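Q: Please design a sequence for this.
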């Protein structure tokens, strides 16, 4: 693909770094979505740069550090061409593989950043996110500790993930928050309860994660339980299993119809939708679809050029309300759980 996507500046006053209007989610390269062909994944990263997809998203928890390590050679080769984002806060216990703890305390943050810097092979992280919120730790401590990292030059900008609107405002008062990364897609719209409005008001860039509904919105998962490899965590995702998967697959008919009208794919319509839905809220967004295939990278980047009509947006409007199953088996650490 020779056509580069448009760019936007991150953060309040849009005075942050310039990135392509679509970013790249690296998570699936190391974990969660089945086996990865490493050479193809590296080629996909190259395709991202060629397309102008420059916001590269990882986290210390993805593959337990392996995703950051995987990215290191790419980071070394292209440090000045990319905006590198990673995250802390989710802690694994080697004794209990399925267990996830959330840590927001200062000591943990200071230790985590050193690990990410080492694995990524860089001396500065462009955008450092708190991956999950532990409500027992005040933002004065957590965002305060993140702000220390900015002052020390280890981190350039701060982000949060899965926080509510009121939490975003509170955190932003401690130190400016550049980006909010939460799940937002045709099938997952709980962020529109409060987080979206707060981000728009504060000028915080919204980074929608899983904008393809973890692949479901591409239309590939009518009977997910059967088709997925044993290492694919979607086997246990409420939306991908049993009757829910069948019901949810049927919801994609309007997406397919609209895709056909545009000569596009359902994935592209899902990506165009989140971009346009954000514009309705007066919000800058940089969705970060994840893929391990060059052809899909180009397909996803091309979605930034699609404009849906009002009638198409209206046809897509009811979908999220009809989805069967939560977006996680355990919703307790999501913003939605604190927003009832
Ligand atoms: N902050 C958080 O808590 C959080 C949570 C989840 C994810 N994230 C971030 O968000 C990123 C994106 O989310 P995600 O990876 O969960 O989900 P996603 O982007 O919604 O979907 C990824 C899935 O869709 C497939 N796919 C991508 N483009 C496609 C296309 N054009 N046609 C058909 N299939 C396509 C991918 O398969 P292939 O790889 O085989 O192409 C993969 O299985 C992650 O990589 C991660 O960086 C953040």
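A: Design:
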């Amino acid at each position: 693909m020779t056509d580069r996507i448009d760019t936007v500046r991150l953060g309040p006053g849009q005075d942050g770094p310039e990135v392509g209007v679509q970013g790249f989610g690296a998570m699936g390269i190391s974990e969660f979505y089945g086996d990865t062909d490493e050479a193809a994944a590296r080629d996909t990263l190259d395709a991202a740069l060629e397309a102008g997809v420059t916001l590269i998203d990882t986290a210390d928890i993805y593959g337990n550090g392996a995703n950051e390590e995987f990215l290191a050679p790419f980071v070394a080769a292209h440090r000045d061409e990319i905006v590198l984002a990673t995250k802390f806060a989710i802690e694994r216990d080697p004794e209990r593989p399925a267990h996830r703890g959330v840590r927001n305390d200062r000591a943990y943050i200071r230790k985590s950043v050193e690990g990410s810097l080492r694995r990524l092979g860089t001396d500065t992280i462009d955008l450092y996110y708190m991956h999950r919120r532990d409500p027992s730790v005040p933002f004065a401590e957590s965002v305060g500790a993140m702000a220390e990292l900015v002052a020390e030059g280890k981190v350039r900008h701060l982000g949060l993930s899965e926080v509510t609107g009121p939490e975003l405002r509170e955190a932003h008062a401690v130190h400016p928050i550049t980006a909010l990364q939460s799940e937002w897609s045709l099938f997952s719209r709980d962020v529109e309860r409060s987080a979206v409005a707060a981000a728009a008001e504060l000028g915080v860039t919204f980074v929608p994660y899983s904008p393809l509904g973890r692949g479901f919105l591409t239309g590939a998962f009518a009977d997910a339980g059967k088709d997925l490899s044993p290492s694919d965590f979607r086997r246990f995702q409420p939306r991908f299993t049993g009757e829910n998967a069948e019901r949810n697959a049927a919801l994609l008919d309007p997406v397919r119809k609209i895709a056909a009208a545009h000569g596009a794919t359902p994935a592209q319509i899902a990506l165009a939708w989140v971009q346009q839905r954000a514009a309705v809220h007066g919000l800058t967004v940089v969705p970060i679809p994840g893929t391990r295939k060059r052809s899909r990278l180009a397909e996803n980047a091309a979605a930034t050029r699609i404009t849906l009509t009002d009638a198409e947006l209206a046809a897509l409007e009811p979908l999220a309300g009809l989805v069967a199953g939560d977006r996680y088996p355990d919703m307790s650490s999501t913003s939605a759980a604190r927003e009832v």
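Q: Thanks. Anything notable?
A: Residues 251 and 319 are 7 Å apart (CA to CA). The chain has one domain: 7-338.
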